[in-house]
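As the work plan foresaw, our protein records have gained a structure token line. A representative record is set out beneath this paragraph:
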Amino acid sequence: MNKLDVAVKVWLSARFNSNHISLISDPTLTTIYMKKLMGTLVLMLLVTGAISQTAPPSTDIHVYEIKEKKGKITLGKGRNITNRNGYDNQPAFFNNDYILYSAHQEDGQNDIMIYDLYENKSTNLTHSADSEYSPYPIPGYQSFAVVRVEEDNSQRLWLYQMDGKTEPQLLFEKIQPVGYFAYHEGDVLMFVLGQPVTLVLANTSVVDDDIITSNVGRTIRHIPGTNEFTFERREENGSTIIYRLERSKNEFFKVIEKPANASDWTITGQGTYITSVGTKLLAFNPKHHSNWQEVADLGAMASKGITRMAVSQENDKLAIVINN
């Protein structure tokens, strides 16, 4: 057990029973740990499947109209926008009426697509020799960030322009391998692979980065209308807790425990968390609920499971990924 493992174990033991958990920010430990993250090829395969010989599972993206009032969500009409035998996943809304998503191509590459909800058509935005995953729109800049699996299997964050003409830009040279992330005004909260997986906070204009905690899950979100992020962490007792990261102090606080067997989740413009268990969608709003509430049961169409989700900027659409 190295110095970082000892420090993390002691820190978690001391803080484990508290809803108020402080930042790990020792720059020496950060340096040691970033070196340790290199060479974690096995975990990279588990997260992205990007360099696997087998194609990823077949999934489709469905988009529903939604209405929300005081945490109560009503699901309206829905449609399958991808509707093919293949991997279409990781949806993220861009300017409310477009959806960025990750798609596995016939040549074995994974590209970032954009779907126009009015014209009902998809366009390939990357179409590169590398594979790209986890698209995240950068508000106000006509650009998006992705996890890019490079020729040497490095897995880092890159910035792409919507016009497809400008060369992509590497955001963080040394932070890798990145699995998932969220962005807000230069702050980037990242799921970084390693043993254990860590949650790393960095800024595009600052050299240093901070390790927030470890054993986190793949869902990371910016909380709309705030400077804060939200994420999940697997606890020693087997439960998974969703936390809110207060950016001003870099401290995080418990929001709620995920339901048993729940999958991915997202958060609405009014701060309501949405997740799924089996065929059902569930919601929780910290201001209005004491526990998870059922929103809808999608029935047979979702019998193989619901995974990733995203809410539009105007809070009127919900995209969900359903296994085929």
Remarks:
- The longest strand covers residues 59-69.
- Helices lie at 3-15, 27-37, 41-48.
